[in-house]
Amino acid sequence: MANHASAEKRNRQRIKRTARNRAAKSALRTELKKARATITATPADATKIVREAIGALDGAAHKGTIPRKRASRLQGRLARALHKASKAA
Hints:
Elements: H1 5-41, H2 46-63, H3 68-88
Helix pairs in contact: 1-2, 1-3, 2-3
C-alpha cells in the first residue's frame, strides 16, 4: 500500500501503463498468428499480411512495448517462413 502521494501516483501510472502494454501485446500476438496462418494456408497472398505484422512489430518496439531485438528476431522468422513457403509453392 502506498503511503506517499508520489507513490500513489506511481501506482496509478503503473496500472495505466500495464493495461496499455497488455492491450498492445495482445493485438501484436493476434497479428502474428494471422500472418503465420496466412503463410501456411496461402503463401501467395501472405506478403501483405506479413508486411502489416512487421509494421506492428516495429511500432511495438518503437513504443517500448517489446524489446527491439525481439521485434527484429520475430521479423526475421516471419520473412524466412514466407520465403520458404513461397519457394515451396
